[in-house]
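Predict the 3D structure for this chain.
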Amino acid sequence: MAEPSHRVEGNASRGGGFESLDKAFMRAIALEGRERERYMAELAAANPGLAARLAGLLAADAMQDSGSGILGEDALIAVRASAGVGGDAGLLTGRTIGGFAVGDLIGQGGSGAVYRARQLRPARSVAFKALRPEVAGAKARRRFELEAEHMGLVSHPNIAAVHAAGFDEETRVSWMATEFVDGARSIVRHAEENGLGLLARLELLRAACAAVAAAHAKGVLHRDIKPSNMLVGTDGVVKVIDFGLSRALATPDGRSLATETGEIIGTLLYMAPEQCTGDPRAIDVRSDVFALGAVLYELLAGAQPRCFEGMALHAAILSVAERDVPRPSLRNPAVEGDLDAIVGMACAREPQSRYASVQELSDDIGRAIAGEPVRARVPGPWRKFRAWTRREPRLAAAVGVAVLATVGLVAATGVYAAGKRQEARRASEISRRVYEQLVPAAAKLGLTEDAPSVREIDLAAYELSVLLNGVDHEVSARLALKLAFDWLKGIGYDPARSEEWARIAEDSLSRVPGLGPSSSMAIEARCVRAWAVVAQAAIAREGAAELTEQARRMLLELLPIVEQRDDVDLASDCLGTLGEFAEAAGDLDLAAEYYLRAITRSTRIRGASDETVVQTRSYLVDTLRRQERWPEALAELEALLDVQREHERGFSPWTIRFAMQRGEVLLRLGEPVAAELQLVEADALVRDHIGENHGMRNRVRAYLREALVAQGRSADAERLWRDLPLNGDARP
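Done. Predicted structure below.
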């Protein structure tokens, strides 16, 4: 069955697939020949201006000389960074935000921009990083907030310090102020410009290792280590920056607010193979070890560790999983065998074959600097083969089956009627085994920003399965469901198409023998349909109320089914979304009930310390405060503070927010003395860990004045706790 049409009718009016140039580009780059011509013609009819800009971008892309060699990558970065897409490059220049006078733009990417800024008190230069509002969805904001939290957890001379972070109501941007690295160059560029020898280059990487090891010791993975995130200033000190893709290690099942199953996180040139699986549980400290080894290769060899010249992005992803990082001595004869061994062990494709920690890698680099024997050994052919069989056991089995089947088919050519029947049965079995391998292979690509390429692969797999197995087949239905997920994620996402593919999957499953409409996969397809309708309601310009009501009804129908399953994503997400709907409708009692049910389930399955549990409990606290159910709100806040402090999150933005809210609740309960003590602590936490002149302090100080007035100390209230002159994010 063919993919739902690329037609553009209605898209311009309803805010659909052609609302931005980067989405249109990613869709067009995945098409060829007449398909692209038809797409461009339909786009020109719906939006001539956008079509003209897209045509120019496609022409420019054809002439791009990409740094990575990945087709379409440079052009996409260029269009995202241009003034035409993503707003004026100097959008914040000249503004004062959170006590920082924002100066010139010094860099930007697809989701954010970095400015040179001046902190007013204390006076100092900072790097002011801002998340672009047009890409600042809930997930992007969570990642940005987690970056500030994770960087704030680690105090190390080789990690750029965070001075403050917040959200500016006027510009609607999340921001973060960090240490400014004067004269910053990437670690590789610094080594090249200064003509550093091998030993000096090893010392640079060893300093970076010390920073990453310190982050690991605090339970934080970086996940995007690359030369541009390892800066060297005029003082020669290495500073590791940009924890925007970092992840806390403490989550029991490997997931966190910053990660969802199916996402590929990182930069392909330096990425560990397991990061291409889309499974966050496969990623640990050894993934950062791999990336550090890849940077070490570039420092030693003078060339990037991988070459993607002329590849499409999905092919580049597959290349990461299939090809080894070469020996640096092949490019630079001055590199000795021990350094080859260090790079080979750090960049082993099998995580079990790498250094177990960054500290072990650093220690081996130290031995190489001192001229002592290193512990690393270059993997031999037999070790590589065994690692491959461990990494791809099903694929190895499938290869064996294919070889045996081929031998059988050759032998069967000597038999006529019986041989033909046997050949047909054998072909059917082989095709099924092939598709059983194809589904997880497609899933390995995950749900990334390269979603159009993922969809193209999944669509081809679906059409091939329909051709050989029919529509009403488990493999066909599974691929249709994968396409439904694909259309909910990445560039050019379209929830209407997601709903359509979820219907196809559900219809097919209802007719597959042994599965049917009550199967877990059919229920999953119904859930995807519900999320697709929720997403349509969120972006709809017209009919949003009707779509919201439709989504609410669908979730209510699903809830009795999914709440019986131990699947947090399905049941807890249903409950949380229903809570948000109830809160928006003004039914706070019902909202609190839904939040409590979601919290109970998630706590039982994931544990009370899971960050998603903490977040849902914060929603419950907000609802209880709005209802003035102060004793219940106090109990929740005290439990949340205990959880945060027990898990070394005592200085996180969430913890500070809970401390402020606890002071407010004590005030409402008629305990002004206890409220004062809590609020004084909250004010110090904001000052020390968010910003001295952050606007959140004014919120705390307003409560403090109220607490002192309630104690009959009005004069002290104004003298001790007057408002600060500069405000940041003052939301409670």
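The domain at 628-732 is CATH 1.25.40 (Serine Threonine Protein Phosphatase 5, Tetratricopeptide repeat).
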